[in-house]
Structure formats: C-alpha cells, structure tokens
Specification:
The chain has 447 residues and is α/β, with parallel strands linked by helices. The protein contains 15 helices and nine strands. The strands form two sheets. Strands 3-2-1-4-5-6 form a six-stranded parallel β-sheet, sandwiched between helices. It has a three-stranded antiparallel β-sheet with strand order 8-7-9. A hairpin with a 5-residue loop joins strand 7 and strand 8. The longest helix has 69 residues. The protein starts with a helix and ends with a helix.
Length: 447
C-alpha cells in the first residue's frame, strides 16, 4: 500500500529530519572548526604577544645599553679631548742651542725656552690649524750636562762649564712644562730616555704631535724606519727638528716625515771636541804665565799678554775651561791609572792646613755657593801640582772604573807599601798595574 508521501510525491518527515540533521551536523562541524581556529589564533596571538613583549623588553634593554655606550663614548671622547699636548724630545748631546744662549747662562736658558715656545706655537698655527692655539707644549731635553759643559768650554763657546749648567737651569724655569734633564756621564743615556718616551707617547691619544730633535744621531733611524713600515698613520704624528745636518740614515727618511728647522735657536753644526787654543804648559815648565781663577777678564788678558819670562805665579785661568785630564789612561784590565805626580812634599805639607777648594783651584769652578773652603789663595805652579797630589789622597767613589775627565780624586793608594790597617782606599786600589794599555781621549768618549 503506498504511503501518503509517495502518493503525494513529497519527501517524508524522516527524510526531512535527516536532511535537517545533516545540515545541523555540518553547522556543528563548522562551529567546531571555527572554535578550533579561534583557539589556534588565540594561541598564536598569545605567543606573538609574548614574543612582542620580549622583543620590546629586549629593544628597551639594547636601547638602554646603546644609550649607555653612547654616553660612555662621549665621555671617552671628552676625556681624549681633555688636556691635549704636543711633546718635544731633544737629544741635548748633539741638538745644542746657539752659542749666544749658552753664553748668557741662566738668562740665556730662559730666553731660549721662551723663543722655542713661541716658534712652536707659530708653526702649529700655520701648519696644524686643527690644533688648539693654546695647546700645551711639553719639552724634554736630555743631555750629559757635565760632558756638554766640558765640550763647550773646550771649544771656547763659554768661559766656564758652569755657564751651560746655569743655562739648563734657566731653560727648565722658562716654561712650566719645560725640563732640561741631566742623564749623567756615559754614551747613549739620552738616546735611551728619548726612545722610551717616544714609544710611550706615540699611541697616547692626548699627545697630538711628537717633535724629535736628534738630527745628529743615526741611532734614531731604526725606530723611525720601523714606524714608517708598520704604521704609516702613526708616522704622521712625528715631526723631525733639524739642528746639525741629518746623519746619513736619518737623511734617507726625511722625505717621508715632516721636518722643521729653527736656525736661530739651535746650532747648525756639532760642537768640536778639541781645544781651539794652545794646551796648558806642562808642570815641568820653568816659566809660565798664570792668572787667578777668580780674576776679571781684563786682568786675565793683561796677565796672558805679559812677557813669557814673567814670574807671576797664580793659578792659570784656563783651568776654568778645560778638564782636569784631557786623556784617561787605562791598564790591560781597563782600570784607570793615575800617572805619577812629582809634587814637592814641602808644598804638600804647606797647603794641607790651608783647606783650599780643590774644584775651584784645579777645575777653575766651584758651583757650591755655600762652600767654606779657601778660594782666595793664589797658587804657583809647584803649589798647583801639590794641590793635585793632595786631591788624590781622597779615593774616587767610582774606583778604578771612573771615566770622568774632571775627576781629581785618587784611583790608587799613594802609600807604597801601605801600612794603614784601615786605609781609605779599597783593596783593588792597591798595587794597581801602572802599565798603560789604552788612552781614552774626549773624542773617544764624548760625542
């Protein structure tokens, strides 16, 4: 029997229900899918938010670090810009100031310092306008002051070695950052100081320029050549000052470096190390003209112009301009030898209680303004020789290795045989080999 739906040609309720249930199922599936998608998006949003917060926090942290680093960089830059200076290194053993300054002693030193300061500032403003006009100038002159003074006196550039020593004092006083430093006796002591300071300040950010005055010495060519090969930019920080003509090896480097010259300030030639005048008369001379070390220049000229047969018997004024020994004698062991002195023992005994100033009477100069010893007595030739003998009775503190041309102390015990249980001379200063093996002249020792 046919159903109503079949008869009527319509779908049944069941079919309609199934259709609706299918649609509902699809709707539920869609909703489920939408829910899952929303949940997924929520999770991604959460992760993205978390990542964003971390990124933001990281950004804040790095921004803070960047700001801190930037501030530190500004502070460092400010510190680097603070207290800029230029450094002038002068090897005073060969880079010697003009005679006119040395002859003025302390005042000449002050004048030379002022002129050097002015000349450098003028050069800086002209050639390096990027540097401040009031930049500090530090000058270090290193020299064997005693040797330099002796050489200048030998060359008759100055009347007395003390003029050079006073010049150094005046130069140091001329400017707050100017120093004339005595390196003491010995070769290359100034070189060592200057080379070390050069390397120290080459990479110093506060040091804007280094002026090196040592044109006479090839020893400075090696560090400069190394600098040119290794760091050309650092080489731009170096300027050479020319005094005497550049030594051969230095001359080869001058095309690659800046060069400046102050012809009115520094000597353009080396100081000769040989006497320009006749040597002293020998101690055995029977007739000589002597002048007191304290005599005025006029009196000295008058005495020196006297007849060669004059019997004037006072200390020779040329002692103020020459060393006590023009040659140092050495034995085969390299020990210093004091040549025998044929002093009159009566004169020796006569002079001992007089308390004479050895430096003044034998070297022609006493720099101790508080010296209590006698400077007034006029010595004859025999007394001069006797005083040298007396001076040798005191042992030299440097012993047998002494290389001081001005040394007037003893280097061996004069008592043969020595009977003193507590002799002032050390054991090795007894029975010294007196056979001369080598003669050390000032030309060998001082450059």
């Amino acid at each position: 029997m046919a159903t109503v739906a079949a008869v009527c040609g319509t779908i049944t309720f069941r079919e309609r229900f199934d259709q609706i249930r299918t649609v509902e199922q699809r709707k539920d599936d869609l909703i489920e899918e939408l829910v899952r998608e929303v949940e997924r998006l929520d999770r991604e949003l959460l992760r993205a938010t978390s990542d964003s917060e971390r990124e933001l926090e990281s950004s804040r942290m790095w921004h803070s670090k960047f700001t801190s680093i930037k501030d530190d960089a500004h502070k460092k830059q400010a510190e680097m810009e603070r207290n800029p200076f230029i450094l002038v290194l002068l090897d005073g053993d060969g880079m010697i100031f003009e005679d006119k300054f040395l002859q003025k002693a302390e005042e000449g030193g002050k004048e030379a310092g002022s002129i050097l300061s002015y000349s450098l500032r003028e050069f800086i403003q002209r050639e390096m306008p990027y540097l401040s006009h009031d930049i500090r100038i530090v000058v270090r002159v290193y020299a064997n002051t005693k040797g330099l003074a002796r050489a200048c006196a030998l060359a008759r550039i100055v009347d007395s070695p003390s003029s050079v020593e006073q010049f150094a004092k005046g130069f140091t006083q001329s400017q707050p950052l100017f120093d004339f430093v005595d390196t003491g006796e010995g070769k290359e002591r100034a070189d060592y100081k200057i080379k070390e300071l050069f390397q120290l300040h080459l990479n110093d950010c506060h040091c804007r320029q280094i002026y090196l005055g040592a044109s006479h010495d090839n020893g400075y060519a090696r560090p400069l050549e190394t600098l040119l090969n290794d760091d050309r930019s650092a080489a731009n920080k170096v300027t050479l000052i020319e005094g005497p003509p550049f030594a051969a090896e230095l001359a080869q480097l001058t095309p690659k470096l800046k060069v400046i010259n102050f012809p009115d300030l520094f000597r353009q030639e080396k100081v000769p190390t040989t006497l320009k005048t006749s040597p002293l008369p020998s101690y055995a001379a029977t007739a000589a003209t002597f002048v007191p070390a304290s005599a005025s220049p006029a009196a000295a000229r008058t005495a020196r112009s006297a007849s060669p047969h004059s019997t004037t018997t006072t200390t020779n004024s040329s002692r103020a301009a020459i060393p006590a020994n023009t040659v140092i004698l050495l034995n085969s062991k390299g020990q210093r030898i004091d040549p025998p002195l044929k002093a009159d023992q009566r004169e020796v005994q006569f002079l001992k209680p007089k308390k004479l100033c050895n430096n003044f009477h034998l070297l022609g100069d006493c720099s101790n303004y508080m010296c209590s010893y006698n400077h007034d007595m006029k010595l004859g030739e025999k007394q001069f020789l006797a005083l040298r003998y007396i001076a040798r009775l005191a042992p030299c503190s440097a012993g047998l290795s002494c290389d001081d041309f001005d040394c007037i102390s003893g280097h061996r015990c004069l008592n043969v045989p020595c009977t003193f249980q507590q002799c002032r001379f050390s054991n090795d200063m007894h029975h010294v080999d007196m056979a001369v093996s080598k003669r050390l002249s000032m030309d060998d020792y001082y450059t």
